[in-house]
Amino acid sequence: MHSVNSILALFYRELKISYRNFSDILSILMFFLLGILIFVFSIGPNTEIFNEIGIGVIWTLILLSNNLSLRKFYQNDFNDGSIILLHMSGLSYELIVLIKIMIIWIFLQLPFFIIIPLAAILLNIELPNVNLILISFLIGSPILTSIASISGSMNLLNQRNFAIGSVIIMILSIPIIIFSVGIINASEEIVRAQLQILIGILFFFLAVTPWVSAACIKLAIQNK
Amino acid sequence: MLLANNISFYRNNNIIFKDVSLALPPQKIINITGANGIGKTTLLKILTHVLIPKKGDIFWNGKNIKKNLFNYYKDVTFVMDKQTSNINLSVIENIFFWKKLFSSIISKKEIDAILDLLSLDNYRNTPINYLSNGEIKKLELTRLVIERKKLWMLDEPYIGLDIETINLLNETFINHTKSGGMIIFSSHYVPDIPNIENLQLENYAQR
Amino acid sequence: MLTPLIILSVIALTTGLVFAFYLSPNDYQQGSTVRIMYVHVPSAWLALLTFFIMTVYSIIGLAFKTPFSFIVNAAVAPIGATFTLICLITGSLWGKPMWGTWWVWDARLTSVAILFMLYLIIIFLKNSFTNDSLGEKITAIFIIVGSINLPIIKFSVDWWNTLHQPASISKLSSSSIDPSMMRPLIIMTIAFTLIALIIAIIRIKAEISERKLKN
Predict the structure, then answer these.
(1) Of the candidates C131, C146, C156, which has its C-beta nearest A223's C-beta?
(2) CA C75 remoteness from chain centre
(3) CA nearest to C152 within chain A
(4) Which partner from A7, A29, A127, B71 sits 20 to 30 angstroms from B121, CA to CA?
(5) Long-range own/partner contacts, residues A12-16 (CB < 8 A, 24 or more apart)
(6) Contact present, C20 and C181 (Cβ < 8 Å)
(7) Is the pLDDT of residue C168 over 50?
(8) Chain C partners within 8 Å of B14 (Cβ)
(9) Max CA separation in chain C (angstroms)
(10) Alpha-carbon distance B118 to B147, whole Å?
């Protein structure tokens, strides 16, 4: 039984918590910008090279920044027992997963809509390309958040291998980066096709993620 | 009425306990006792369907909780050994969150009364991380009053509480049963409440 | 049970190798380096077959809670990883005389490299949980998620390849092979499958004994 009150209560609580931890969000944005900076230092300020690889660099860093949200999803609520509390209030685990993904997308991915144009300016990328990046980011970012949710839920009781969560996120994100970067400098039909594929992948992940994450959370709760 | 029939729980093919049965009708209190590690928390988690037993069924008002889970949850408050209050929120924010989460009809006056009773009134707007462990535990116990459910399940509720709060908790337990509720908890400490049934888990454990 | 299999695999392997090295012709383009194909292709086939088997057993294990399924997963994952590695190494050795470099980002090699990393993740993931039964279930979920993603990844790598690479390199992956080359290929594939089966049986037995010891 999903009372609207419970759903809203959880939603507002997560909003409040995320807002109070705003420095976490800003840190992820700083990670992204520092990554751009590191690329610039490692390659040299040759603007012609940036025209070729700038978009790839931006997308790579979006992917890497996604790794940082791994523990943010369920770890704290799992450790202090709130996730059981949320379940007992009538919210199914799938719904909890959905709400968490929405909140984390709003706070950790939405700011990128401002940061990506900033990075594009730093890398001298032309304006029409920036629009394309933002469109593919609009479709790709929920997919990335879903992937992080899956990896976060799998690694709730993983206390030995700290890196594998990020590795899982990265390997599952490979199709997204291929189709997102590919829409730059491509012909009209290819752009359309790739966007459609991205949307297809998005629907697939939106359907599968709540079920997979909920299953992993339930397994973790039963095996604590 | 809560009924548990022949609950057996295994962990990695080792028996934790076998054939535990209990009946918890209204106005009754059961205290699960036993040595550390005997399985008290496990039994409570099984009764709230957080863990699944290898054998046995649990019935609430005649219906198997497995098939009727959310209806069962509407009648249960589970206070665990962990504190579910969020460190990013203040005392009153946590309370309002629980109020909305469980669609509770508790009034602002009643909330003020409880905070006053538990000496948490001065900490209304303090974030949780400034409170002592005992105070956080007291906050967790307010859930019993906020959720206002019939069946109360508590895991080691007395740990860390001062004498005043222990007496308060006992009083609350007695009032709850008088008005038709039922309580099951695990504790090493034997509270000063008349007519508590004791469930000694040693009798069922295989150690 | 093992002895007839061992005999069979020895026969298959010897026949295959004889065909591969003596009785099959040289490729008109590549000369005798084409013979690496007789190790490379069966390894690739086995790498994929193992993944498919693990996926099936993961589904069965999660749905019906049979412990044997997870035993198979644990036993077979390193076998798949090894054959993927053999495929990568032979592919690289084949590539050096062919394209002049040890590595090239053609669609097939890239997908196999990703498959190899999937195998490693599976092995590492299983060992990163202190609770073994939790570890095998989470790994099973990951195998299913990974196997659904595998065609997506393969498709996306192919897509990326056609956007970036000219078609000449993909000529190698063409399936129009002369029957005189097909025969040793099939025999070697059968031989490799039998060898993998033998190793799998040994590992499954070992895994069962290990679990009995733990309990």
Answers:
(1) C131
(2) 14
(3) A175
(4) A7
(5) A12/B97, A12/B100, A13/B86, A13/B89, A13/B97, A14/A99, A14/A100, A14/A103, A15/A103, A16/B88, A16/B89, A16/B93
(6) no
(7) no
(8) 215
(9) 60
(10) 17
pLDDT at A200: 93
Q: How far apart are CA A85 and CA B77, in angstroms?
A: 9
Q: Which residues, in sequence order, are CB contacts of B163 under 8 Å at separation 6+?
A: none
pLDDT of C171 strictly over 50 = no
Which strands form B196-200's sheet, in the order they lie side by side? Answer: B76-79, B151-155, B182-186, B29-33, B196-200
Residue B11 distance to chain C (closest CA, Å) = 10
Q: Does the distance separating the beta carbons of A167 and C131 come in below 8 Å?
A: no
Could you write out the three-class secondary structure of C146-165?
Answer: HHHHHHHHHHHHHHHHHHHC
- Position B207 scores a pLDDT of 58
User: Do the beta carbons of residue C169 and residue C107 sit within 8 Å?
Assistant: no
Rounded distance, CA C120 to CA C118, Å?
5
What b/e readout covers C32-41, taking b as 16+ CB neighbours within 10 angstroms?
ebbbbbbbbb
Q: Which domains does chain B have, with CATH numbers?
A: 1-75+153-160+181-207 (3.40.50.300), 82-149 (no CATH)
Alpha carbons C67 and A133: distance in angstroms, whole number: 47
CA distance A122 to A41: 13
Mean pLDDT on C63-89: 94
Residue B66 has which token pair? Answer: 């497995």
Classify burial at A12, counting beta carbons within 10 Å of its beta carbon; exposed 0-12, middle 13-18, buried 19 or more.
Answer: middle
